[in-house]
Structure formats: C-alpha cells, structure tokens
Design brief:
By secondary structure, the protein is an alpha+beta fold. The protein contains 16 helices and 16 strands. It is about 30% helix and about 20% strand.
Length: about 475
Amino acid sequence: MWPRNARAANNRTVKSAVAIIRPATIWHPEQTLILPPYQQKIQRVRDEFRELGNRGVRLGKPTSNLFRQRTDSTGGRLDVSDFDNVIEVNSAQQWVEVEGMTPYAALSEATLAENAMPAVVPQLKSITIGGAISGVGIESSSFRYGLPHETVIEMDVLTGDGRVLTCTPHNEFSDLFFGLPNSYGTLGYALRLKVKTIPVRNFVKLEHQRIDDPLNYFEAIGERCDSNVDFVDGSVFATDEHYITTGRFVDSAPFTSDYTYLDIYYRWIREKPSDYLSAYDYLWRWDTDWFWCSKNLYMQNPLARRLMGRKRLNSTTYAKVMRWNFKWNITRTLNRIAGYYPETVIQDVDIPIESAAPFLAFLHREIGIKPIWICPIRAYNKTARYPLYPMHADTTYINFGFWDGVKDRQPHPPGYRNRKIEHLTTELGGIKSLYSDSYYTEDQFWQHYNEPVYRALKAKYDTDNRLNDLYEKCVMKQ
C-alpha cells in the first residue's frame, strides 16, 4: 500500500484501457454526433471562445501561480475549469494522458496509484500541468529530465484563432509544440497532454550534505548530477552554509518523517544528515510551507500552525492570502507607516553552472534574501529546441529561487533590485522565468525571448490577436 493515501486517486478519472478515442489533428465538431466527454468539453470551450470579445481573452480557472498583479483586468474569461481529469495512466509504456487544468496533486495521486509519477513534478500542489508547460516548471528530477515541457509527447492546443490542434514534435504543428513553452497562454491553451512518467518505489531516502565553500558546492552539485541518484536540489542558508540534498528511491525505510504539520522540512535539512519520506510526501515536501515563505504569514509559529490545522497548511492557502494582500496593499501600507520602502523580489533564474558562484555572491551582496533554493537542470532531449526559453543543450544550469521582500529606509526607483537581477542574468548567459514581475524594456525583452519566432507563431496561430502579446502580459501586466 502507498503511504499517506497515495493510492487514493479518483478512479473515475483514470482509465486502464490502452485504446481510447483521441481527437483528430484538427477537430471539427460536426464530424461526430455522439462525443466522448473530453470532446464535448472541446465543443463547449470552442463555442465559448467564439462568443468572447476580440481582445484580451484569458483563462477562467480557480488557481493561479503567477506572482504579478495585473494592471488591466478587462477581457473575456474562458472557463476551462472542467479540463481537470486524468484520462489514462499507462505505467508499462511510461506515459500519462491528462487534461490541461489538472493540478499536479491530482495527477500525481493518479500516477502513484499505478506505481509511476510524472518525470518532473513541480513543487506546489496547485500548479496545473498546462500551466507548467505554457510557463516554466522545475523540480529535483530536472537534472535528468529537464523542465516539464521537455517530457511532453503530444498535446491538444486551443489556439488564438479558435482551432484545437494536436501538436507533436514531428507533425505539421511541431512549431507550436516547441513554441508553446514560456508563451504563457499568448499562443493558445493546452487542453490535453500526454507526458512521460517514470517508475517509483515506496520511499525516498534523502541525504543532506553541508559544503561551506560556494565553488566547491557547485562543483559537487555537478558531480551529483553525474551519479546514479534520482533527485538533486539544494538550499543556501548563509555565505558559508550550503546544502546539497540527494534522493534515491528505496523499497523500505527504517522510519519516515512527516513535514505536513508541526515539523518544517527546510529546518531539518540542517539537522538531519539523512531522512526518509514516502514517495508521496517527497513530492510535496516544499508545499506545506511554500518552501520557507510561510514565515511571512507567521505560519511557522507552532501555535499558529495548530490553529490553522494540517489541511490548510499548504501553498494554495498562502497564495490566496497573498492575492488578498496584493489587492488591498496591507503589507505595503504597514511598511510605509513604519518608514520602510519595500521591494518584492520573487524570482527564479537559470544560470550556467560555471557562473553560479558569482551569481550567488551577487545575491548575498546586493539582494540579501535567504534561504535560497538551488536546483540543477540539464536538457532531457539534446536535439530539441524551445525557442521562447532557449537553453544550451550541453550546459548544466543552476536554478536560483529566491522569494521575499527587501526593505529600505530610502526609496528606490521601481524594480531597483529586480532590474539588477535581470541585468546580471543576461550578462552571465542565463534566462529568467516570467511568472513574476519583469522590468525589461521592450527591446531587451524580445532580445531574450526570440521575437522573430514568436511573431511568426502569433501570425500563424492567433491571426486576430485575440490573446495578449507576451511582452504585454509579462511586463506590462495586461
């Protein structure tokens, strides 16, 4: 039996049959009189899409993991909330077929029930698979399997011109297949995906190693990526306190830890050289405390945790509070009353490993946020090219995740520190995720995110510009 109810998948949504009905490459509703449930949803969503306005169409769904506040809330909302089913898990052939708005919490439960997991499972339960593909996701298996979009086998995309296209690496829509990642819904929405899975075992054995020197630290991370471990990530607590965490699947464990309630995972990294988690709990080890960001909501206080209760200690709860705070500017107002000028610095950037130590030194010197999450990335398919998120196939990258506010007694121009981060990321040959605030000029932005390819895709799949432009959405926050 899977620990912690990992087998509690919704069996109504998982089909064990190998043969299922799939949409045609370009689906036309008039071709079929009696439609399977998935195609009924397609017909509905295409009809709704036609009825919405001509500009600024965006998704209407219950969750979001974007960390930028829109300046323009106009535009029609397309209801895709019912595209949230796991269609089929085929652990023998190592793939799962799933609808695009399915959160990874539900997807992982369904695959774990079949002794499998998606090859890359982003850290937060509420992230949807479609969001991780059209944005950029990452986790501790990324040193082996790359980013989530690299594990996609095929997908159905609702394009800006209202078509639903099945895209694969080799068919006539391969340009959209490779162009959708990092497009953030400006080219279309992934309604169905078939993605790679990997086999799992019952438990994950963790080993936490402290390394004081940053140069030695990143060298050791590279060595771990060349070893036979299943997972690699890290945490930086101080200029001379760096940890590498490696994970290996095992069949049995002498004990298992529980970081879903009173114990806080990241604190124990510094205390336990080794640890064991169920496979399910390993996937969500960061979710309970939103990595370490729960401290900003005072949720690391034992009494507050007890009052909140186990079920509400998760990233979904914290994200709702954060959006409420954004709406009413409570924290910013209190800081101004106290005489502080805060800047929110919530970023993930990918830096070539040979430049990782200088970038880390910059973070310590100029930004000052701690802890910092560290995650190595290597391309899964060395020949694949994703033009809107270009990474060199032969390079190991280090993802730096740092999420907090920085307070000053003197005001700075908007985005003062974020602009420094963007500048150095470019200088070091890295690339920045676009889920949070960006401050590039339009020329700078398109130099980084491949304007010629994007414009060609936009002209082909969103001829009337019904979906927002990538720069408008990610920088102008429209």
